[in-house]
Write a structure and sequence with these properties.
Structural class: mainly alpha
Number of strands: 5
Distance between the termini: 121 Å
Strand content: under 5%
Shape: elongated
Number of helices: 15
Strand order of the largest sheet: 1-3-2
Order of helices and strands: HHEHHEEHHHHEEHHHHHHH
Radius of gyration: 43 Å
Largest sheet: 3 strands, antiparallel
């Protein structure tokens, strides 16, 4: 190897050894600093580990005159995470004052606490991490009475938008000894509870009902969902309505009491055929009064006994709902014969809606009487037979009435929108075959569609 190359390599090795020796010395000094007890709290040790050894001990940070010694300009470099005792090293007076000035720049703006923390970071006040800055700044602003709060957002309080420092954040040079000890909140003090929101003004229900009536009369045939009607009323008169929350709960009973609406089984409403309270119309006829009383009695019976049906077996509770539905169909026929008065028709419609809901609620089987496409040959026989089954008794109808009932059951299998399983069809056909012959038109039609139920008898 050339002597010149050898000498160059030796020089580089010596230089590398020197650098390693210096690095070893720096690491030794770092280890020594970390092993020393910290003086003056977590913010006291600000030594620059790359400088020459300091025999006198750790370097003290440069302090600003008038500033309390416990709060340095910056957080210690070791405080990477805001945990433990280092979390209180921020200069909260300075941060609170900076936050107040940010709020004062745009007094009408509502700030989220995190947005305010980001703006403080841009001013160099976040230190090494944002953790805890948003919550700490917001808590101190509330405690100082500087801000108003709404839904977690902050805005400069109206009486504090002059740009002058807030009383709770005194100049840093002021002597803290003059402040009562009880008035000084520690850095970890819990935030003051937000001020209670003003109570909403009471709604003007007379005006709201009037607006709803105008909307209903503008389109008498329209079926409104309550949410749609509530929204339309609020848009028509926002001053009287205020918030739409819960409006439909108060609007529906008032529209009923005023006689303004008719209600569909699905819960939608439209303008009543004869709007206005019933007291303002002509007295009902004796027949109407009788029908109204019977409809009301049936409704009360359903409400009183509905919950008890859940404890019964499916066959009995289905028969109970079917008996109620048969009685409602008898009342419906009588209403039509009496000219179908509007108020009684609406009351009966409510009864049918209640029964339809009970079928789903109780898990009942199909009820023919609740289908408008189905008619019984003898409604009285239909009700009587289902009443017997609901009571746990063996039904015993006259032969002609039993045959009429079974023909109706077979007709129910043919309803277009009904889904019928093979077992259900077979059970219905077998029950009908006990009193009807295969030559009966309804039996023949059912067997043609669903097949013969079981083996044929020779």
């Amino acid at each position: 190897m050339d002597d010149g190359v050898t000498q160059a390599l030796v020089a580089e090795i010596r230089e590398l050894a020197r650098l390693l020796s210096e690095a070893s010395g720096v690491l030794a000094r770092i280890s020594d600093r970390l092993a020393r007890p910290v003086r003056g709290g977590p913010a006291a040790d600000r030594a620059d580990f790359t400088s020459e050894p300091d025999v006198a001990g750790p370097m003290e940070p440069e302090r600003t005159p008038g500033r309390p010694s416990a709060a340095p300009d910056l957080e210690p470099r070791a405080a990477v995470a805001e945990t433990g005792p280092q979390a209180g090293a921020r200069d909260w007076d300075r941060i609170t004052e900076a936050a107040r000035r940010l709020l004062a720049r745009d007094p009408d703006r509502w700030w989220r606490a995190q947005e305010l923390a980001l703006a403080l970071r841009d001013q160099g006040l976040a230190g090494s991490t944002l953790r805890g800055l948003a919550a700490g700044a917001a808590a101190r602003l509330r405690a100082a009475g500087i801000v108003d709060e709404d839904s977690g957002r902050l805005r400069l309080r109206a009486e504090d938008d002059t740009g002058d420092p807030a009383p709770a954040s005194a100049p840093r040079g002021a002597a803290r000894s003059e402040e009562p000890a009880s008035a000084r909140a520690p850095a970890s003090a819990p935030p003051a509870p937000p001020a209670a929101k003003a109570t909403a003004a009471p709604r003007s229900w007379a005006v709201i009902v009037a607006r709803a009536g105008e909307l209903l009369r503008a389109d008498p045939t329209r079926l409104w969902k309550l949410s749609e009607l509530s929204r339309a009323v609020q848009e028509a008169d926002p001053a009287s309505v205020g918030s739409r929350r819960g409006l439909h709960f108060g609007l529906l009973p008032r529209l009923r009491a005023a006689g303004l609406i008719a209600e569909a089984p699905d819960g939608r409403v439209c303008l009543a055929a004869t709007p206005g309270p019933r007291a303002a119309t002509a007295d009902p006829s004796p027949l109407e009064s009788s029908l109204r009383g019977e409809i009301a009695m049936l409704g009360r019976e359903i409400d009183a006994l509905a919950e008890e049906q859940a404890a019964l077996e499916n066959e009995r509770r289905t028969a109970r709902v079917a008996a109620w539905a048969g009685r409602a169909r008898i009342l419906q026929e009588r209403l039509r014969a009496a000219g179908d008065p509007a108020e009684e028709r609406e009351r009966l419609r409510d009864v049918f809606a209640r029964l339809t809901g009970l079928v789903k609620q109780l898990g009942c089987r199909w009820v023919n009487a609740l289908s408008s496409a189905w008619e019984a040959e003898d409604w009285e026989a239909y009700v009587a037979r289902n009443e017997a089954v609901a009571g746990g008794a063996q039904p015993s109808l006259p032969p002609a009435a039993e045959r009429a009932y079974q023909r109706g059951a077979l007709k129910g299998l043919q309803i277009l929108h009904r889904e019928v399983g093979r077992k259900e069809a077979a059970r219905t056909i077998l029950e009908a075959r006990a009193v009807l012959t295969e030559s009966d038109a309804e039996v023949a039609s059912a067997m043609q569609r669903f097949g013969y139920p079981g083996p044929r008898l020779v």
